Amino acid sequence: MKLQQYIFLSFIFLFCFANMNAQQTFPLYGNDPIPNSKPAENREKTEINDWKIEFTTETSEPTLTYFKPAKSNGTAVIVCPGGGYSGTAGDHEGRQIAKALNEAGIAAFVLKYRIPNDRYCVDKSLAPLQDAQQAIRTVRKRAKEWGIFPHRIGIMGFSAGGHLAASAATHFDFTADATCKDTTSVRPDFVGLIYPVISFRDGVGHDGSMENLIGKEASLQQVAFFSNELRVTPQSPPAFLVHAQDDWVKVQNSMLYQQACIENGVPVEAHFWANGGHGFGLKNPVNGQEWMPWLVAWVNQLPSPN
Description:
The chain is of the alpha/beta class. It is built from 9 helices and 10 strands.
């Protein structure tokens, strides 16, 4: 073999090896049974949908994928892709986000949470929140192993994934898995909400996300429980929001959450664009602006861990 070929093949091997080790996917609950689940065939599938977006449906076996930055600053973010609780957009609201966070030195964990479905869930309304809490629990317990500060672990989400992230930020005093005996804190240290569904109340909430999570005949108590603007307290974590005013997930979702934070003395930074629509991922398609630098700057100025 010629020297040039050897060098080239060695480079390719090292490149692939480095990328392989930069990402690790593992079952969210490890070898333990998945809580709140029924025995059912795994019918998960990933396709490119009509909007040319990678979309994964019928996830019944949740996973967490760790994206390791080249040089960690000790901060970690759990990323919840959106999809109306009917699936998850795992590329432009998952992997692409994780890689952008890595570029800023932030460890990222993409959560492929269960899609609410009576076929494999005992109580489908609690399954995504159980998975989000387990993700926070897992990252916090393994923080030392991954070079992460245990009190600098945030969660962020997009659209319905934003509803899940907001639920994690406002329901940390509620153990979604009643069988869990682990007392590790599931309170995120900060939350990022990008064009999020926040409320299920009439006139504001996104009907599709609400129906997929709690059903068309949900009680007023269920609606209130999952309307996260009603759950903000002074103990809620700092919040960062981005929303376009022409989004079909009404911008009032983010405005209500921002107002609830202000009323409860919770630090909040919000960016509202006049245009941009919904589901744009990293870059506003109208004005070309990217919100990630704002998020990184905001996270970096949060108080350092003790």
